[in-house]
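In the laboratory, one determines a bound structure by crystallizing the protein with its ligand and collecting diffraction data. In a computational setting the workflow is compressed into a single prediction: the sequence and the ligand go in, and a structural description comes out. We illustrate the idea with zinc ion.
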Amino acid sequence: MSKDQIIIFDTTLRDGEQSPGASMNTKEKIQIATQLERLGVDVIEAGFAAASPGDFDAIHKIAQVVKNSTVCSLARALERDITEAAKAIEAAPKKRIHTFIATSPIHMEYKLKMTPEQVIKKAVEAVALAKSFVDDVEFSCEDAGRSDIGFLKEISDAVIEVGAKTINLPDTVGIRMPSEIADMISQMKAHIGERAIISVHNHNDLGLAVANSLEAIKNGARQVECTINGLGERAGNAALEEIVMALKVREDMFSDVETKINTKEIYPTSRMIATITGIEPQPNKAIVGKNAFAHESGIHQDGVLKHKQTYEIFSPEEIGLNKDDTLVLGKHSGRAAFKDKLEKLGFNLTKEQLDETFLRFKELADKKKDIYDDDLRALVTSNMTSIEKSFEIVALQLMDSTGGVPSAAVTIKKPDGTEVTDAGIGDGTIDAIFKTIDRITGHSGRLMDYKVKSVSKGKDALANVTVQVNFNQDEPAVIGHGLSIDTMLASARAYIGALNSYISMRGMLKKRGNSTSNII
Ligand code: KIV
Ligand code: ZN
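The predicted complex, in structure-token form:
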């Protein structure tokens, strides 16, 4: 029996980026899009082109590099949003515009202040305009979960008539139970038939996003919108890895459908997203959490040793997690072995990227005894995604603060190539470092968030620091990452990274003569 394909629509770069503190720079987004393509997702929602010049730039660049997956931009049902989306995805071999308008009584009355008739008219105009740019147009009934089913049928008929190929029915506020989703999807499937693909987009406010997506598939949905690690607005979206593995492990329940996902790329993709956003999945998170394969109790350990499947419903290798991941490369290891290892981890670097990463690997191997896969992933990711370095940390020296005043001496290379050293004091060591950086660079930042995470294990583990800094109160805060065995140096690098991101964002704005407002 031939199986129906479930279209995996990944929105990590759009809805996922709407998670508080998850904003990513263009290079990071390109790196993620390339990995999503390797994972085998069918559609990559690369952003919301009209939201900001940064979003436009990232989608535009992703459209130039992604070849096998469809590249999609979100657009409200507005002329400017749709033309910006069309421009941003132009270069992609496979492209889609995803336009939406709210259809629930509460959204139409209070948010849009429009009648249902006006909403249908706007939706039809938007789809028709999108269709003049691309063949593949998706229409979303925002807040479908709280919309009248009769109205959903009416608006779907109208947009299918002008060319919408996918009708997405989001549970925008995550309020629906699986039985209610089943009912909505089966009614919509009976009404729409083969005229369009039915899609779902479930939010996780009641922890039901994955269950609801699976129920939708059982009742005729053939596209699911989801994110890696379940990132997304508020409590997040349905997690891609959970949907895909549920379909695979419970093939007996889903024997008529399949996905094109290469499950061995799930773990590497999850690690890349966590490293770049600084948002770690909770330890007990299904599939990719740190404890997902940890057997703590004696009874469980005994069972697993006797027969793995006593307590393991699938093997870590199936998602690309190699538990025995110590790298036996040391400072004397050659480039070929290093390159081979990176390829096994899914990284294909250009010659320049390989040269630079190899150098950083050697520096690390000098200081750190055991190097794990996660260390390498962090090293490569930080090298490949760092934006143009306007400022660079050259040296950092800290004075002993025990009982005294915390102070730091910092040397920074400026954009004109000169090196400047200065020293300062603060309320703590980090405060002293950041204040000194502010003085040297002439930019004053307000620290909104600071996170430190050890990349792998051991006392000599690499520290990955993520900061969120606001350099101008009228503009959005920016994120910076820093990696080092020394947590203070990692913090200084993260802060300078955020400043470089801010400068690059300002440069982009100047070029486009635009503002940074985020409009979802
Ligand atoms: O949650 C939602 O309704 C959305 C739409 C824009 C698809 O993200
Ligand atoms: Zn959403």
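The pocket of 3-methyl-2-oxobutanoic acid (ligand 1) is lined by residues 15, 100, 140, 142, 170, 172, 201, 203 (CB under 6 Å). Keep in mind that any predicted model is a hypothesis to be tested, not a measurement.
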